[in-house]
Each structure stands twice: as C-alpha cells, then as structure tokens.
Amino acid sequence: MVNLAGAPPDDPLPVLRQWLARAAELADRPNPHSMVLSTTGAEGRPDARVVLLKRFDHRRGYLVFYTNYESAKGRQLAARAEACAVFHWDRLGRQARIRGPVLASPREESDAYFATRSWQSQLAAWSSEQSQPVPSRAALNARMNETAARFGGDGEDWTAAPPPGAVARPPFWGGYRLFARNVELWAQGDARLHDRILWSRDLESAGESECRAGPWNASRLQP
Ligand SMILES: Cc1cc2nc3c(=O)[nH]c(=O)nc-3n(C[C@H](O)[C@H](O)[C@H](O)COP(=O)(O)O)c2cc1C
What we know:
Blueprint (H helix, E strand, L loop, with lengths): L12 H12 L9 E7 L5 E7 L2 E3 L4 E7 L3 H8 L2 E8 L4 E11 L2 H10 L2 H9 L9 H14 L22 E7 L2 E6 L7 E6 L2 E3 L5 E3 L3 E5 L2
Antiparallel strand pairs: 1-2, 1-5, 3-4, 4-7, 5-6, 6-7, 6-8, 8-9, 9-12, 10-11
C-alpha cells in the first residue's frame, strides 16, 4: 500500500484503485463504492447526491456511474459537463476527490450493463421519471405494474417472477464517465497533520466518450 507521507507516486489512479479495493474489504460497510457526486447546472448553483461507482478504469482514467439522463443531475450535466466525486472511508481515514469532464458512456456499454440488472431494477429504470414529482407511492406502484405488463410480466403485481426474454435499456437511462483531471488523495495523519496530494493533468476530447490525457503533476497541499 502506497504511503502518502513519502514522495507522491507519478500516477494517482493505481493508488485510488488500491484504496477502492481496500474499502471493499471492509465487511461492516455496505456500498463501499458509493460516492458523493457534485454537479452544477447552467445557473451555476452546486448540487450533490450519492451515486454508486460501477466501474473504475484506472488506465483510461475514468469513473463510471449509471443514472437517468433526464434526472436533475442529467440535466445539470447536459448544461455543464463537469463533476466532482468524493469518497470518504472513515474506517480507513481516507478521502478521495476526483474532478473533471463527464461524457455519456457508449450506448453498447450501457446496454451491456443494463442487461445485468435485475428485472425489478430494469422496471424501475423504465418507470421512474427520476427527480420529477409523483402524486403518491400508489401512483409509482401503478406505473411499475404498467411497465411490467408492457414487458410481458404480471400487470397486477410487478414483484411477481419475471417473464422470459430481455428488457431493452430505456434510451433515457445509462452510464456516464467522469474523467479524472484532478485527483486529491487525503490520508488522516497524527495531530491533524493529514497528508494531501493533489494531482492534475490536461485532458482533451478524443471522441464521443473518450478523453486523451497529458502527464500528471503532483503537489503536496497543507492540511
Ligand atoms: C447509497 C446510495 C446509492 C445510490 N446510487 C445511485 C446511483 O447509482 N444512481 C442514481 O441515479 N441514483 C442513486 N442514488 C440516488 C441518488 O442519491 C439521488 O436520489 C437520485 O439519483 C436523484 O438525484 P438527482 O435528482 O440529483 O438527479 C443512490 C442513493 C444512495 C443513498
């Protein structure tokens, strides 16, 4: 395990990978890969919520999460395609902060991930106009039943066993890639002399879902 008290490693992403793996070993914490995702819309007001990290490509330098493209966060990202993600692992005395541009995942990748989700999660993705008001819980339930019937399930009880056959991904639901332009790793130290290393690099667009990255520059920050 890399010790941040020494000279900073050239590339923070393998370190982040180790930290994520270590967090996943903590048996007493559900969702060790949940992260606070912060976005701003066109009006520049910050917003934040928890999402799950579903994939981390440490070579190509991005984090993947899945959501509704028409949710509040989806609209904010459509207006300003930049985000910040923060992980906090209290038991490990660690925080990781990743900032950079956000691009929608390739469609085939979202299709492949959607296909791995449970029938009920697939129904929920189709049924929820995420972040829009709904009159009641019963109305949500009715929508789930309608969606179940549409895909060949039990229209009276969406919790019933799924029918055979695949459910296609809704076009308004899929993945995003948050590309790491800045990574700050924070490790708790004695007497509040925490270790903080900030790595930064240039990124340039290299296609619909890709960025090309320059070399990392590291600096140690005061705690
Ligand atoms: C532990 C946890 C994990 C979550 N994971 C996701 C997720 O992966 N994707 C998602 O869209 N919402 C997830 N949510 C719900 C979001 O926090 C949020 O309520 C929802 O995405 C709507 O956010 P928005 O209105 O800012 O778009 C999660 C919530 C919690 C507490």
